[in-house]
Amino acid sequence: MTTRAEILKMLSDGVFHSGTDLGNNLGITRAAVCKCIRRLTQSGLDVHRVTGRGYRLDAPLTLLDRSRILKHLGAAAPLLKNRLEILDQVDSTNRYLRARAAEEQKDTRDLAASLHGSVCLTEAQSQGRGRRGRAWVTTPYHNLTLSMAWRFPSGPAFASGLSLAAGVAVLHAIEEYGVEGGGLKWPNDVLWKGRKLAGLLADVAGEAAGPCVAVLGVGINCFIHEREAARIDQPWADIQTITGEPVDRNRLAALVIRHLRAVLEDFADSGLAPYRGEWERRHLYAGRKVRLLQGEATHEGIAEGVDEHGALCVRDARGAVRKFHSGEISLRPV
């Protein structure tokens, strides 16, 4: 754990801690404490300083905790004991696991066999990505950002539709946490009352004949501070606002991990098929007129479901059904 993370852990109770006490506990100077506090504020945390009293956060903070996540996983904990990693900060959890997969491929000549099922979570992500290269905006230390790696014996084409199946898993996890009223938007968003609550991003690499490794990134809005909210260019929702209570991110993380593992195990055997029907039932734009943006081109029609590979089927004004694959396609309601 970094010195900055150690200081944040001590400040997480929301009460004042003097710079002297912080320094003595960590064996560092007060100048080093000030430097760490400055870095915490630069990452987006509100750290208050009062002369004679010290430093405190504007509110208590529950940090991601590996032991708590494993406890919430219950019977599934042994499967994650050596495959669960929590980082204080990283550019991208997807990129982090992809880099590990590339290194392991060099060392073992087996495409990330030991990375299979690994999970990486982070408190702060500087270069998180949404679809079409957009930035994923989060409030550091308040949201849930994780990636899971999964090895499939087949090639990358097999993973078509993976983000749809994973969307069902994330929706199940959010509902089990206690948030009702959610639904899905093709290809990889979870919405609540028409506002984005969570998103997914799948990166797949491997030889055409297999095997391949899919790194599936998940971002869930637990709490969005107003300064980050000003940077979001679409309607959004967060769990704290929905429930009126601070989010237990460790419990939520365990739920997401458990549901994702179950879906990925099924997907390895049967592809999208076990989840296709439910995805279509939970798609918020099913039977509605939609607009799809593909570069400069625009396509309109009625959303009719997805095919076995996850392509969105849209019936145009002439009655013809066209299939659209994710990537550079963006769906909008009309």
Helix/strand/pairing class, anyone? alpha+beta
User: How many individual domains?
Assistant: 3
Number of helices: 11
Low-confidence residue ranges:
none
Let me know the number of strands.
Answer: 14
Radius of gyration computed on alpha carbons: 21 Å
Ends distance: 49 Å
Following the backbone from N to C, one meets helices and strands in this order, namely HHHEEHHEHEEHEEEEHHHHEEEEE
| CATH architecture annotation name of the largest domain | 2-Layer Sandwich
**Overall mean pLDDT score?**
89
Stated plainly, the CATH topology of the largest domain is called: BirA Bifunctional Protein, domain 2
Q: Explain this structure to me?
A:
With 334 residues, the chain is an alpha+beta fold. It folds into three domains: 3-57, Winged helix-like DNA-binding domain superfamily/Winged helix DNA-binding domain (Arc Repressor Mutant, subunit A, Orthogonal Bundle), CATH 1.10.10; 66-281, 2-Layer Sandwich (BirA Bifunctional Protein, domain 2); 285-333, Roll (SH3 type barrels), CATH 2.30.30. 34% of the residues lie in helices and 27% in strands. It is built from eleven helices and 14 strands. It has helices at residues 3-11, 19-26, 30-42, 66-73, 77-80, 93-108, 162-177, 226-229, 239-243, 249-270, 273-282, and strands at 47-50, 54-57, 84-90, 119-125, 144-152, 182-185, 189-192, 195-206, 212-220, 289-294, 297-306, 312-315, 321-324, 329-333. The strands form three sheets. It has a seven-stranded mixed sheet with strand order 3-4-5-9-8-7-6, sandwiched between helices. A five-stranded antiparallel sheet has the order 13-12-11-10-14, with no helix packed on it. Strands 1-2 form a two-stranded antiparallel sheet. The longest helix is centred in the last third of the chain and has 22 residues, at 249-270. The mean pLDDT is 89.
